[in-house]
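From the shared-data thread, chain only:
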Amino acid sequence: MSTGSGTHSSSGPGSGPDPTATSRLNARVIGICLAAALGGFLFGFDTAVINGAVDALADEFSLNAGLKGFAVSSALIGCAVGAWFAGPLANKLGRVKVMLIAASLFLLSAIGSGLAFGVGDLILWRVIGGLGVGAASVIAPAYIAEVSPARVRGRLGSLQQLAIVTGIFVALLSDAWLAESAGGAANTLWLGQEAWRWMFMAEAVPAIAYGAFALRLPESPRYLVGKGEIERAAHVLRDFTGVSDVTHKIEEIERSLKSDKKASLHDLRGKRLGLKPIVWSGILLSVFQQFVGINVIFYYSTTLWRSVGFTESDALTITVITSVTNIVVTVVAIMLIDKIGRRLLLLIGSSGMFVSLGLMAIAFSNATLETAADGTTSATLDGAWATVALVAANAFVVFFGASWGPVVWVLLGEMFPNRIRASALAVAAAAQWIANFAVSTTFPALSDLGLTFAYGLYAFFALLSFFFVFSKIPETRGQELEDMRDDAIIKRGKIVEPA
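Structure, as tokens:
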């Protein structure tokens, strides 16, 4: 994998690669996109690793329901902050340097969380990890979109979500293995440390790998053009992206960047509610992705399945199976996204999530409620209703994983114009993490009110998301990034010129 500063081919910037180079170029761009997507792997690992540890650390630090919810979702505060600042930092330092910063934050969080001596410093280390997650959530889709050929940008952009769900799977699998090895997450495993502590420290391995790969990535050609480094940009476009007419492409990028005006958050301002319509579309797309409650499944599923009668071991196994399902359907989405488009996948996903979440709400309305001595209430599902809940939960993951999971990150990476992409993506990603924080923090309280209410609320947002996509989200399949307009208006899924 090259750094982008290696030997140039003998052909000039305006000449195309020879026919025998096509497969090599494809392999190169796939390689650098996979390396960039490692940030997504850590994104998924960091946010899901708490799943297997939450009950054990709650007992260790004697946490009530409110503090337990905050301990789980505290990383999301860092995610929002990291996402907010990642865009401006990426515009100033470059995409690759921000990846290296994120890798360092992941490493610090892994070690610190594993060695935490109280809930206060655990939350601090989780917030630091969240900063890395937030930065990775902005940089990976922006970078992948900027180095990918338009014809395969959807598939390569989907690698981010594939990496996320793979990270979730590996985190849950390692949680299950460590808990099984110790005979329970709260039991001592190695070096006198409990298994739940090793769950956090396991993240150090992929964090180091991410940093090592990032050191060898070429910088984004669009960033390089904005900085006036035309030769380096031409090299990346020719040898990685496979652009045949590099000179023309660089001229297009220069026009779209309007490089005489420095990009900033002020460029996102518009006449309607303070922001440009396309920015609002990105923000609401992010919020709806979280308001359907997907992360309740991945943050609390072990606790959820234990509450309806499964043992800790069985609950962890079910959670791992769910994450495998998520990986499989993400692969399906990668195969479809450049064939049937982004909008249709989102509309199918919204419909399926509405039905499956509705079934979960109905199933839990038939649960038997039991009140413990400490006043907490738990729900137990009997007979067929337990099966309905289990099938509906996995169906929800299928519809989300095949649509809203990967498609949102693809759209956020490609729907914004070059000049405002990093900044607009930062704002949209920050909104996503704030929404994630709100859902994750409130779920324990909502579940105390009743799981029927909680899942009914998520079903309502799934229904709203259908109408939002239908009216406000454009189809970007096959469009060049240079064709995106920051003053564009969306009508019936198409980007039109402003009146």
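The longest strand covers residues 368-371.
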